[in-house]
Amino acid sequence: MAGRGSVGGGRPPSRSRDRGQVAVEFVGMVPLILLLVAAVWECVLIGYAFSLAGNAADQGARAGAVKGGGECDTAARKYVGDAWNMTVDCGPAGDLYKAKVSLQIPVLFPGLGFGGIDGTAGAAMEREE
Q: Which residues form the TadE-like domain (predicted)?
């Protein structure tokens, strides 16, 4: 019985020192995981803003080419909410009717300020007679 209790005696080492290690590692990783989720969300908002601005400009240009400036602004604002602080600039440019839509990206952390996203579209003039 020479090996009992000594190192290399065949008994597995005690695991009491490792208790709670997973919980400590998880608590340490939670802020990083939350930061990653916030960054991904901001990227999604930026992509969505590009899509919204392009679609709103396209809708506005088509409506303006047929019915004029008031309809351009109304059509551009139809599917975009107030949180985007949208500005619309419509007007004829030769044989085209152009619309430019600018959106401000809402951010999770005020002060980051990604700036604005612009969408521009044009449509051939088609006045109703």
A: 20-62
Q: Residue 86: inside a domain, yes or no?
A: yes
pLDDT at 128 over 80: no
The SS3 assignment for 35 reads: helix
User: Backbone phi, then psi, for 101, in 5-degree steps?
Assistant: -115, 130
Q: Which domain holds residue 33?
A: 24-124
Amino acid code (one letter) for 4: R
In a domain? residue 5 = no
What count of residues does the chain have?
Answer: 129
What is the rounded CA–CA span in Å between residue 84 and residue 78? 13
CB 63 within 8 A of CB 71: yes
Is residue 13 included in any domain, yes or no?
no
- Nearest partner of 59 among 125, 120, 127, 129, judged by Cα: 120
Q: What is the rounded distance in angstroms from the CA atom of residue 35 to the CA atom of residue 41?
A: 10
CA distance 64 to 97: 6
